[in-house]
Every structure is written in structure tokens, then in C-alpha cells.
Description:
Helix content: 40-55%
Radius of gyration: 19 Å
Order of helices and strands: HEEEHEHEHHHHH
Structural class: alpha/beta
Shape: globular
Number of strands: 5
Strand order of the largest sheet: 3-2-1-4-5
CATH architecture of the largest domain: 2-Layer Sandwich
Distance between the termini: 43 Å
Number of domains: 2
Amino acid sequence: MCAELDKHVERFRTRKLESPYPYVWLDGTFVKVRENGRVVSQALVIAIAVTISGEREVLGLDVGPSESGAFWLSFLRDLTARGLNGVKLVISDAHGGLKAAISSVLQGASWQRCRVHFMRDALGLVPKSAQHMVAATIRTVFAQPDAAAARDQWRRVADTFRARYGRLAEMLDAAEADVLAYAKFLPAHWHQVWSNNPLEMASSQLTICA
């Protein structure tokens, strides 16, 4: 049964990609797999995109020994060889190897730092007792109605934390352009493109304007 399923999975993983894909989400996790009679941890990476007609599509997935830059580079090159095109924005976490691979393979696409991953990193810089307040304050940025207001609020939030949580303020200063990259795109799409988290991507369809 597994051998038969493998054939279907391989056909899916190697199919041609034909539609332009303006938004692409990339993420990875670690799973336990059986290899040579042993159970080991390996990286599972996945790419999800939205077509020009607004439908979500799993572009591909792969399993490798680690979530390294070389693995991501190979994965993205395979996607482009299969026909991935028209990418305007890539959404992922700030993994250094992944960012380098995106820059190398998907030239011309903007990069959006996933706000969920960013929030986890930010909260790691403050005491647990302050995390709820800090998270609520940062989230006020994403409630802003336009790009200018979001940038202004981001800087106000950074200044609010500067005296008490200097490292957090510095992180906010450095990450502004990456976390707010979504603001250059259609406001109707913001809730879908500012994160690669499945809960943030709850909507199944986007209306894309070419």
C-alpha cells in the first residue's frame, strides 16, 4: 500500500507548475523518520503558493537531513525547474540559509518575515511576565489601515520599549522593513501574506489583481 502511495506522491512532487504564483509561503519542521532500521529526525520543508486565479496550491515538499541553506537552495531550484514563476512576495521565517536561497533563486521577489515567527523571537527577549503586554503592543501595528500608519506605529512601539527593553527595541529597528513588507501589497491580502503560519493563512482564496 505504501509503495503504491509513493507513486502518487512522486507524481505530485514532480508535476509541472504552470500558473504564475505571486505569493509563495515557505516553512520547515522536523519529523521522525525510519532510515536503515533506525528512527531519526529529519527536516520536512514545504512550499505553498497562491495562483493568479486566487487558489492555494501546495507546490512541493521534501525531506532532508537538516534545514540547511544548501537543502533550501536545492528545493527552490527544483521548484523553478518545474516551472515556478511570477513570484512577487515570499513569506518565511528569518532562517539565514533560507533567506540566502530565496535571494539566489527567486531574484526580483520581495521577502516578508513571518510575523508569527518574529513575535516568538521578540517575546524571547522580555520576561515572561511582560510577554502578554509586549505581544499586544506589537500587534497594534498590524491593525493599522495603511502602510504609512503601520510604519509610524512600528516606530512608536520600538520607542515605547527602548528604555526598558533595549534589545527588543533594537530588534524592532532592524526588522521593520522585513516584517512590514506586506504593506506594499494589496490591503485585502495583508491577513494572508504577513505570515506563513497555517492559522494566519485561514482564508482559502485570494482575489489577485494582475
